[in-house]
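User: Is it possible to get a 3D structure for a protein together with its bound compound? The compound here is zinc ion. I've pasted both below.
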Amino acid sequence: MVGPPGTGKTLMARAVAGEAGVPFLALTGSSFVELFVGVGASRVRDLFADARKRAPSIIFIDEIDAIGQRRGGSIVSNDEREQTLNQLLAEMDGFDPTTGVVVMAATNRPEVLDPALLRPGRFDREVEIPLPNQAERAAILKVHVAGKHLAPDVDFDDVARATPGFSGADLANLINEAAIVAVRDDRDVVFARDIDEARDRVLLGRRDASNALLPEEKHSVAVHEAGHALVAFLSEHADPVAKITILPAGRALGVTEQLPVDERHLYSESHLLDSLAVRLGGRASENLVIGEASTGAANDLSGATQLAIKMVKEWGLSPRLGPIGYGSDGPGYLSGPLLGQERPYAEGTQQVIDQEVSRLLSEAEDRARALLSQNRDVLDAVIAALLEKETISGEDLTEIVNRVRSAGDGKRAGLGAPS
Ligand code: ZN
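Assistant: Yes, that's possible. Here is the predicted structure of the complex:
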């Protein structure tokens, strides 16, 4: 079984054994690997001997990558691990199909597994267990709230929408954190706002007094976040703004959160361009309102640059480079087996890529700046609201925009409701 951590691979293996009604022998891969050479191999022998004695039975090896890594690929060899893996391969080869022993394993790094493990007769079926989608998250949440008192304002679909990328284990943790928030507040009922706070805590870290901001820092964070939020609001293809806050949490000084209306699998070019403008909106706002940018935009800049590089190099969205995709460099670009590998294009192409990335970024910044300066009165109102309330919702933002717009003479261009 292949899938990200926390998606329920172990639960799935247990459920299989439960359905089959046979003995279930579970071990983690790391428990085989010992300091002393030969111990792991003898553990593998014992495990299979035990399984044969109790057949029909199921062996489940969690984190198989701990022993099943590609042999001879790394610079430092690990005799113990290789012996353990060889023993595992030998045991699986010696299987008589009539013994009735089924071997299952789980990993979140299938790419590091030794190819010999995946040959017919060994682990020859791959079951992918992906992260849950929105509807599945809602269903998983319903399982984890069993036994907890929920207020009627908790809407599972809303929570599922706000938790893209959460695994089953993350969702269980979210519900536990929400219960802790409620208990701290002397309540035995969990409200929607508790789940909201728990989510921020899980995603961003805990909020406490030690990371409080200086007053002038607070102002520049408000300027920065208001810039992100207003560019998102004014960009037709950007995801709607759900929440803006200038309360520091974990390593983030402030957060502008956008939530997609539906879970997306494909992104259009116009969505990507708007997303670049939103990321650069914080810095554009600092430049416009304060007159200079701060170090607060470092994450935005690296995020925007990564996205622009993908647009040019992988998704064929640069007119100068044309419809060509070089794929991603991947994590091992400069290390591991790919050490010293050449990039698959000429030096001149690299220059065009650099120029195209820089063009996309400066166009996005220009657009963000133009949107903000055309709507400077709205921007100032959002900054003031953030300084006053510290956290405002997407609805508050819409309300501020409408209030300023109706107070003005209505001649401003470019104002529209988020799509
Ligand atoms: Zn930012």
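Confidence is low (pLDDT under 50) at residues 330-340. The chain has three domains: 9-118, 134-204, 209-405.
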